[in-house]
Amino acid sequence: MLPQKIYFLIKKINFYEKIYILFITISIVLTIFVGIPTDSSDIGISSTNLAIGDRLFYINETSKGFGYENYNGNILFPLILKIVTVLSNLIGEDQYSKIWNLITILISSALSIFTLNLLRKSTLFIFKEKVANIVCILFILNPYSYFFPLSGGLTNYVTFGTTFLLFLFCRSYKKGYKLSKSNFIQDTLFLNIACVYLASLRPTGAILGIVVLLYFLYKN
Fold it and tell me: Which residues contact 70 (CB under 8 A, 6 or more apart)?
């Protein structure tokens, strides 16, 4: 039964998403052997100091484990990295190990795949399938669609959150109702979750979340 369920699950995945999953998987495997250099350090599994972007801000020896003396920033991303570190420590590895890099990269890559899925569905809600296919192709051909997953940085987390908001708006448009006038508990719940998620990632995400929620409060 399990192989059948896996088969039907794979069958449901869009053709372009399958291509992207294949490409990102190949990229991850290749970085086991060869790191990709950046302006700071390498990205990829083989990196000895994964370039997640502002690493010293998100992982350090302060009392909170992240931030600077006068500014701590938002908590979600540092919390995720802390959990990854704890998981790695359980098998005797630290934050500079390949295991730590692998877990961090897999999370970021999964978010990138989900982003493509939401982006494709959002486009289908507004335009025809041809336009959605072009969007998928542009996403697959974009070098940053591989750079950010392989770095394991914050960018993919933010991109996923904003794309999820886009998905909610486009879906409401397709169904013929305004999200701000929707009484659906599910829509309201997802909207609030997306805004809280973005607000917990970075200050700009908090600003976006507040603007969106204030807009809906005003409209209602």
Answer: none
Instruction: Please report the sign of the dihedral spanned by the C-alpha atoms of residue 7, residue 18, residue 113, residue 11.
Output: negative
Q: What is the pLDDT of residue 202?
A: 86
Is residue 104 within 8 Å of 84, Cβ to Cβ? yes
Check residue 142 and give left, alpha or beta (phi > 0: left; psi -120 to 50: alpha): beta
| Residues pairing with 220 in the sheet | none
User: What's the chain's length in residues?
Assistant: 220
pLDDT, tens only, 43-52:
889 988 888 8
What is the per-residue DSSP string for the chain? -HHHHHHHHHHHS-HHHHHHHHHHHHHHHHTTT-PBP-SSS-BSTT-SS---SSHHHHS-SSSSSSS-SS----SHHHHHHHHHHHHHHHTT--TTSHHHHHHHHHHHHHHHHHHHHHHHHHHHHHS-HHHHHHHHHHHHH-THHHHHHHHT-SHHHHHHHHHHHHHHHHHHHHHTS-GGG---HHHHHHHHHHHHHHHTT-HHHHHHHHHHHHHHHHH-
Percent of the chain's residues with pLDDT above 90: 45
Beta bridge partners of 36: 43
The CA distance from 98 to 37, in Å, is 16
| Per-residue confidence (pLDDT) for residue 220, from 0 to 100 | 55
List, for the chain, all residue ranges whose pLDDT scores fall below the cut of 50. 2
CB of 94 closer than 8 Å to CB of 81: no
